[in-house]
Write the structure tokens for this entry.
Amino acid sequence: MRKKTFLKGAAILGIAGLMVQVMGAIFRIPLANIIGDEGMGYYQTAYPIYIFLLVFSTNGAPAAISKMVSERIAVGKHAEAHTVFRISFLVMLILGVVSSAIVFFGAKPIVTMLGNPHAYYAMAAIAPALLFVPIMAVFRGYFQGMQEMAPTAFSQLVEQAIRVGIGLILAVLLVEKGIEYAAGGACFGTSIGPIAGTLILIIVYLRKSNKIKKQMLAENVVTKESSKSIFKRLVYLTVPITIGVSILPIMNIADVGIVMNRMQSIGFSYEASNALYGQLTGMAGPIINIPQALALSIALSMVPAVAAAQSTKDKSFLKDNVRLGFRTAMMLGVPCAFGLMSLSEPIMLLLYPMQAESAASAAPSLFYLSIGIVFLAIAQTMAGILQGLDKASAAVYSLLAGLVVKIILTYLLTGIPQLNVQGAAIGSSVAYGVVGILNLWAVKRVCETEFDWKLTVIKPILCGILMSVCVLISYSLLIGILGNTLATALSICVGAGVYGISLIFSKSILPNEIKALPKGEMLYRLLHKIHLI
């Protein structure tokens, strides 16, 4: 198999992930305006539980499957790679049935335990999704193992489009019956999307089936691993990989278990606690999902690329991918973090104009969450490298350390009335820092790789500072003339342009890296023509 860096796959998944998050924002913004922070509190009590279970099926299992598939394809074992697919399908089908039943029949005791019993309909409504999501995971992992990211990207877009459309329609239809019913309707849209995504992946698989069969028949490999051995390997890899890529969902689960109960214990009413919790997790939190999705696309693309390099014992190519992964995480994480910190309140007011008071109240939480974005990007990228190197346990230990920090800080800081939910946001950012630093240290130790700190860290940060200054100046000049909406939108465009140009002028991104992107040759020629390279 010819050498492939992770960049093209990461770009495809990153673009799809960005579009998915934009559609998610299109969903959440009107949803928050329809059902308010009270309804978002119900919605967000159920949704993190779903996301935690979903990550196992969409990120953890596909990463494990893609690793096992890529390792075999790299040495010509196509039939064995397909056996991985078949065994994974059976395992994940069983998982889907069990997880769906647990959430549906256990919805009432789960939401009662979490201190938000009115979230029952939202919790029950997400259960059907868990039947189809694991099946999608198998197909996605198989295609990603072949370093074909387009099927995953396309299925994600279809799944999200269906989810957004049906979820909003049901929320509007049910809002007159009650906020808790509207939140349940919004969640039920989440259960319809995976059905469409699964159908797309089945169609893609059937279209590729003849090519897969020819590859299996043409191989000359004699020794084959048993199905039992493959199953054991799959289970061994899936659990630590799932935990390693579940940084954001696990931190959100900690908030579900602590914030509502803690705030009520210091004197906040149930209604006030639920509203503030909705501001944190339903209004500020989803904005972090956009950079998180970009970082996750790097991590998922790193797994098969690193695993293939390790299988062929190409240490030089492995180290090149590791260095590039770290730099890419920094180049993506810095502008997202600095930009959101610079415009936290204007962005909240832009997105939630019908809930202006709640949006302004949620802005400090967004600011504190944004601080941790760079570390979150590093943590996820390094976790992907560790998983590809069979060192997923190191990422698990890092996450456990971060989780301990998160729980302690969230409990202590949320208990300060002046901070309330902002304490949870601060706890999350500090925890991301702990996980990111530990994962980076583990990768450096395992790969024995030296990093160019000036190129990788200092230059992107300086570009980010310049971008922030230009953004703040732009917004301050435009706000009095154009109003918040246009001033914020134009300032974001200014920031993106300044950051991109400064990266090129400072040589933070290299010509060969631009060429490695989808349509990279065309982009390189354009930049060269206008004298930016």
Remarks:
- The first helix runs from residue 7 to 74.
- The chain is about 85% helix and 0% strand.
